[in-house]
Amino acid sequence: MDISSTGLRVLRQIAESGSFTAAAVRLGYTQSAVSRQAAALEHSAGAVLFERRPDGVRLTPAGLTLLRHARTMLAALAAAERDLTGGAAHSAPVRCGAVPSAGAAIWPAALARLAQTDPHLTVTTREGTTPSLVRALRAGSLDLAVLTSRPPHRPFDGETPRLHLQTVAETELAVAAPARGDFAGRASVHVDELAEAAWIAAPSSGSEPLLGVWPGLPGRPRIVHTARDWLTKLHLVAGGFGVTTVPVRLAPVLPPGVSLLRVEGAPVEVRRVLVARLAGRPAPALTAVTQAIMSAA
Question: Looking at the chain, which terminus has fewer C-beta neighbours within 10 angstroms, N or C?
């Protein structure tokens, strides 16, 4: 096969982004250029690599096979570039991702620990939704991801081999409410009282459930504000503009004017925090970062 490194990078980005358009934006290419690279890859491989679907593009089994080798080849090219430019091998960054609720409570402490225990490591971080971070792991553009799952804790995707998952912690879900107002001075609230509440939620999509509204809330929730950013949602709560859900572990980073309420009359909602990576024996740097995350949690 005659495949360029550009073609491999396009393959990896399509796998991560889930569409030709999004891959073009991330790579700084036109969509037609990405489509040409995809067609050239399929011609060279002699196989269909991409499945065009209404909800985006997914890699076929042949595409996933090529992606597995692409990760190895692109990593080798990056190592060669470091050697040729005099960069030390150990300076290669450990690329980490996290869902916003996990990153806010874990990254600062984890990075501070690594600065003491492994100062030679370079760690880069980015936020994302669970589906986007899982795709990035599969594509090889992330090394680790801090994810959360809800019961019954199904696999994050259907690909094999399964991602290696290590449980970091479990935390209960609570309701963040204004410190002043209807729920002022209370430590708990009955689920029926939340039926008419004004909710602040993250916008949902087909691959990501509605976040910020209590699961199993009676009736249809009245959503008055939508925001993906946790800090935005919590400051809206502090201003008295609604309520939202947060993991209890976020309590140390709540802004003034926000109270946490335990929900009564409904099953306890538990969220699991996990570190995910590709299957196989991890490099020492990944082990060090994982241990720092475990300690921070």
Answer: N
